[in-house]
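Can't paste images in this forum, so I'm doing it all in text. The chain is below; anyone willing to post the predicted structure tokens underneath?
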Amino acid sequence: MPTSFRLRSLIIVTFLLLICGIGALTALLAYERSADAIRRQALTRAVDVGAAATREFFRLTAPVRSGVELLGLSRLPRMDAVEGQLRALPFMATMLHTSSAARGFYFADTSGSLFYVRRAQQPLDNTAPANSAYVALSIVRAGDKVQALRLYFDLELNELARHADAEVAGLDPRQRAWYTQAMASHELIRTGAYTFFSSGERGYTVAMATQDRQFVAAADFRHALLNEVLGRYRLTSSTRMLLLDEQGMVIASDRGEDFLKDLEGGVDARKLGLQALAQLVEMPEGKMQQFSGDRRDWYLQRLSLPHKSGGPLYLGIAIPADELLKDARDIRNAILLQTLVILLLSLPVAVWLSGFLVDPILRLAAAAERLNNFEFNEPLELPTRIVEVRQLAANLNHSRVTQQRFVELALQLNDERDFERLLPTLLRITTEACQAIGGLLYVKHSADTPPRLMAGRWGARVLEVASDAPSFAVSDAMRSRHSELREADPQASAALGLPPSLSVAVPLFTRQGHGAGVLVLFFEHAPAHNEVRFIEALAGFAALALETRGLLERQKALFESFIQLIASAIDAKSAYTGGHCSRVPEAARLLAAAACAESHGPYASFAMNEHDWQALHIATWLHDCGKVTTPEYVVDKATKLETLYDRIHEVRMRFEVLKRDAEIDYLRAVQTGTDEAQARAARDQLLATLDEEFAFVAECNTGFVDDERLQRLQRIAQRTWLRTLDDRLGISGEERQRKERQPLVAVPVLEPLLADRPEQCVERRASERYEADNPWGFRMPIPELLYDRGELKNLSIRRGTLTEEERYKINEHIVQTIRMLTALPFPPELAAIPEIAGGHHERIDGKGYPRGLTGEQLSPQARMLAIADVFEALTARDRPYKPSKTLSQALRIMRSMCEEGHLDRELFRIFVASGACLEYAQRYLDEDQLDARDLSQFVPPAAA
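Text version of the structure:
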């Protein structure tokens, strides 16, 4: 026997080779740890750098602030002459000497005089004497007279030259920001960044007003030194450091070129072109944050600098993560390179061992692939020295046989659609797959009833199933929840005419743990343990099949109940349509059955399968489901002024008011001396006229209106009545909005007795309009308004009680039906439901609604539903607004509708000639409506 190897030994060898991989993982972990250490060290350094930059900032700015404070507290000279201003020169020169960051010191008074001292520098002072150390600018303002001088001094403050400076003669310090801000504050202030007029440099001004508010002392602080400080403390080549004010304006930058983007309003950090710098403005203070932007990762730090003058200052630091972690990346790359060398050296050994291992596994994978493709005919033969692989091949071969049995079982069960026939089929397939000599299938129909024998087999013989068939201890099997092998009950076997045998009772449970039944199998010899497991697996599959088919039946029943529930709710919503949704399906079913039975004519080849019948059934029950959106008061509108109530009561009350006014006018006339008999006669005439006019208006509310009546209605409407109360009190918010679009009229006010008021026009929402290319193909003309409740407009309706808007609202139910049914996820075999239900108001000639389809564009089922809908509506007796038609009247009307292109002529012929309409009439019409037995007179001639 050839030498065999155990897979475990080969796995150990493979793990030894994977040491290289473990080394690579170790290298990566080492990188992460070193990178984390470098990151923490760098972040600590960033904080230290921020602190050092802060100290350097205060070293530069503190002397400037102190100098301004001392200058403001000192005894300032007279400003009305240059000699008086020069008394402050020694003190200001000393402050310039001690404050390297100061560009210059100066003060100004309330008269607009200014004395300014700064260092001389080239090329700004290219006309200054050779030994010039200081430049002073003196502006003396006395009324309209201004004297402006530029003076030059050496280091000992000897005057070297002076000359008039007309360029700055127009400078008024009182208009400068530093002056106005200092005068408005009792503390040291700091201006925003700007360009100094004297040198063109960038900086800001620190200023303070004297206690008597007569002088302002100030100093210009140069940004250039702060830029240099920030540049010295830069951590990496791409690190950015900014000194910011609270508005995000840049006071100083580690890169001076930022100020090349200078505008008069200053440099905004958010406009420097880097998202990281913009983030510095928004982030909180103190805690360092990570930020991704500008195609790289950053570490950001924002420190608050305590500052005595002006608003707060902040130091912002942005460090690129890639530069910060450069050393860690170098370490990582070196370790990975070493790991790669080790892997390359180990590659030949790994290739040899992998070939030894993978070859039999590949064969097993190919066999498994054949199983995935349901190819069970080829047995698996795998010669190999690996014991575990040989065992796996044997198990896979056994799995192939088991799967083959399961697939055959599933295919045969899937072909069986009838639940009653499913049970014998399920038992036959299970007994054959388990190689049993017979079997019984008990099914538990409800939780309160015991399992009942539904199918039995013995060999090829089907056993007769009786209600009192023996149970073979199935109740014990249901309680134990485990299969049991035992001697078959001799009495039960004898009752079924079966020879002695061994039986296995396997309980069947659903996925929710509910008992579905018991499967009893008979064997000549006791099955092995693995065969019992296979039987239990097959029994689970049988339980799943029972549960699935039962679930489908219950879902179908639930869906049917839901459909009828919706239809019943629609019928119950209005007394005018009660029973309509339940009777139309029956009429449509009778017509469809008659069409399928046709043997000649256009419908000779017409047939409907199971899904077609189901689609027609659902469509007919739900054909009016859109009526749930139609307001009940519109459907039931009995008078022209009726909405939620009949507004004729409002009109009557106005007439009552006019009658009371007539009584009042009569009494006032008598009181003022008018002849009583004459006044009484006028009153009685007016009261009679008002009574007759109201009776006429009331008649218009319920009856026909012609041109003559319309003219009289207009004349009556011109009467006025006096309203003394605000008609905007106590009304809904929606009505108030409509009223507020009109100007408010003060009360008391005379109003027309009848009118079409603007607030009675309810606008249509945009969502209730449809574009010409709407996805449903609706082509119904849509009224501009949703409702027009104008009294004159409604009373002027010539026939019926509905306005154009209300008639559209009723017809719109078919639009809602189509939208509602289209939104439901019907399976493909029921996809025609929206088209069938939505077409019953279309016409054969294309003049119907809502899509204006012709007969060729409508399915036969949709045309059948149209006929059933009209026939039911004509003969129904639950329509209080119109009398029901007799059978002959209804058929005569429908024949005319066929001739007018409304209904399908051929289908109506089938409906009448087949007797389907008579069968419906005998079932649903009252006896007095059955006035025709011979229907041949209503049958239209067949189509050519």
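The domain at 416-556 is CATH 3.30.450.40 (Beta-Lactamase). The chain has a mean pLDDT of 80.
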